[in-house]
Amino acid sequence: MTRGGWKFWLPLALFAFFVALVGTQLLSPAQREVESAMIGKPLPQFVLAAASPDRPGVAAVDLKDGKPRLLNIWASWCIPCAAEAPQLEALQKQGVDIVGVAIRDRPEDVAAFLARYGNPYSRIGADNLSEVQLGIGSSGVPETFIVDGKGVIRYQHIGDIRPEHVPMLLEKLREAGA
Amino acid sequence: MRLLSALCLAISLLLSGAALSAQDSMPPAPYAYRQLDDPDKEAEAKALMETLRCLKCQGQSIADSDAPMAGDMRHQVRTRIEAGESPDEIRDWLVERYGDYVSFAPRFDGATWPLFALPVVIVALALGLLWRRLGRRG
Amino acid sequence: MIAEFGLAALWLAAALAGLQLFAGAIALKGRAGELSRLVRPVAVMQGALTAVSFAALVMLFLRTDLSVKLVVANSHSAKPFIYKLAGTWGNHEGSMLLWVTVMAGMGALIALLERRLPERTMLATLATQAFVGLGFYAFLLFSSNPFERLPMPAAEGMGLNPLLQDIGLAFHPPTLYLGYVGLSVAFSFAVGALLTGEVGPTFARVMRPWVLGAWIFLTIGITAGSYWAYYELGWGGWWFWDPVENASLMPWLAGTALLHSASVLAARDALRAWTVMLGVVAFSMSMIGTFLVRSGILTSVHAFAVDPERGSFILVLLAIYIGGALTLFALKAGSIAEGARFSATSREGALVFNNVMLSAILGIVLLGTLYPLLTEAFGVKVSVGPPYFNPVGAIFAVPMLVVMAVGPLLRWRRDAFARVRKSVIFVGLIFALLLAVLLFWRPMGLLPWLGMALSVPLAVASVLPLRGRNLGHLPLSVWGMVVAHFGLALALFGMAADSALTVEKLAAARIGDSTKVGPWTVTLDSVEPVAGPNWIALEGRMSATYRDKAESSVIAPQARSFWAPPQQTTESALLTRWNGQLYAVLGDETEDGRWQLRLWWKPFVTCIWFGGLLVALGGFLALLGRVAVDLRRRVAVRKIAARKEELEKVQGR
Questions:
Q1: Which of B74, C241, C339, C596 would disulfide-bridge C269, Cβ 3.0–4.6 Å?
Q2: Residues of C in contact with A16 (CB under 8 A)
Q3: What does the CA dihedral C511, C512, C515, C516 come to, rounded to 10 degrees?
């Protein structure tokens, strides 16, 4: 090989690195959702007015009463939210306290949705400016957070809750101190 | 390949848009489409918005997206700027919630140092190459 | 029948590519004989067959043949003619067929036209072109067959995405593809030259017009794509540094570097290995870009068409072709002497500088584009966007532009700086003066400030090579350089002016309300429903007055609703003056009956795209110049041959 021949291998080495990198990514695609960075941190301060006449609104202090619960981010205009309604119902039947935050929603639409798909919530706050959603690092609907008795976010479930997720959520709730 | 850019964009619209056929009917947040009265503050807010990522869109900043969530984020940015927060504080607030993904301006930290180190290496390489080629007159 | 016919033509073309590779390889081994004479005609046939196949797909789309899966998925009988046509390449399978067609077509063209290179290098080049083509045929036939039939014809197609239903987009992809895939010729020439070891000025001269041709289309494609994004996306942005855009920029950067280093190789027989390397890199960037976009690997949220099978297929092709070419390069580059050395103050010295800077920018764009992928492998998500690309790119772009101003004034081989001192001082003074003036005029960001101050002296410097020359006798290629460099200065001015001077006004206006944006007064006259062929829209009619002029112009942005597929788009309205554009978008109606308007006054923004087109025009002039020289040379050769023959006749042999 001629003098300095190693540098001619440099482009190939860089390319091999590229192939290895994208190859591993192709074989095991990374998590595509944007996860909240708030897991393990306390809920930010917030006070939301009631989104439904028969349930009170939500404030951060309401979630610091020593009892772990689900914080469900949803909206009446979101189709997967309707799909997860039976699972929320089931969780509620097992004694889970579910607090709802309705994103950019009108009271009449909320009422219609709850009348149609059931109302598993103990409280529903109206988050008309996505303030709470942004405050806890949620990037879509539906998302479900587990908040422990001290108001610390313990877990984030992205997307609708399928039947197979129910035991897992119950387990996470138990870990959070239920 | 810009076509494909359009395609991804379009398809992302279609996806978010299971949402789209069921778009929320709420009016946009007050400051989603309204500028701050103080032009200096508005300029500050605008510059910041151009560097924040719309979480529901395909590689767009919140400054150029019609997604409702981008509108709500613009509202947050403008009201916080109005309240006297600095752009860096607002960026940090969002990064605390969404991680570095939300900001188009990578910070210098354990995960991103090569982004800043490699340009330095490239400068060194470029200077070295130029020195070898051009340094020796002849 | 048309679908089967198209598919058969494609299979046949693939078989011919195999034959072309086989014949070329045998000929290279030295056992040439009859087989080597097959290579050129086979290449031409292969090109013709892919054209037939592509024409068949176009026919299927024009007829909206609902028994073909691709047509059903991407077209609709109610679509206007032009979008039925554009639908052919507005999807994955169709665009890959276009890719293969362009690739085989370029192979056919070099087989037909190129006779300057030694025949062995030529055979190696054509064999390489066929070899690369084969992989893409396989990809098309085995994993992306555009002619696939449905078991049952569908009742109606699903339609083309409304964002794509735009006249700009009808012609944008073919342009870009001609550019991307046109670079495959540079790749094949480079590999061919590596195989035979014949890298020299002739190689550079032969490769240059082909690269120029591809580069012109790439330039037009990127420029048009940027303008399309600007008016179609409705927020006035024209470049977002998103992965898909970067995928088109990277081959352009490599191609630009290649053109300049080929000039050095052609004129001074230097930079041999470097030029060959760039020839490989340019098309590699096209392929890598295609891979990144098609595999969906870079689109993190709402990933589109994430198809690991397709992605893996292209990745294997990349590994074979790019890996193969780079291995060949590593093995052979050492035996290619670098050729002549040169001094820093010389034309080639400046060109080397430009090449290194362009490559550095390419490196930055590649790094920034791939970096999120790298951290994702470690479970960390980051975004790299304009706040990174702009300043880091500028570190290399600014010195490059400065040298671009001076380089063309220098002579080849060796020049005395004293000879150009006056010009440099003159241009430098303009720069310094503008920096000072802009500083006092109004506050602006560092980069727009530098950009605006730099663009004017750059434009002045770009025409300086014309000074003292006889303009009538100046070679076309010099005109090309001047026009392209001037275009770049103009584009830079437009970019800097847009980011420094744009005025934005978001308003909620009632009918009859006036809004001021920069020097304009815009009055919302009415909002009316209008109907198009496959959409309905609300159209806001506004009259716009510039300063205190008496007459006003009407602009009418629309909010369109398409029904197949159902989707809303905003159609911005643009009012162009020599000194900028008024950009208007109609938003939603507010609850109290006002209309959301988005208005921008964008001074000199059009310079960006005029500049881009001038760059392409410069390339075209240079191409014309090169081809004319070559034709003249051919005529001269023929004349000499004819004379010789005559002489021999006279001598009575």
A1: C339
A2: 323
A3: 160
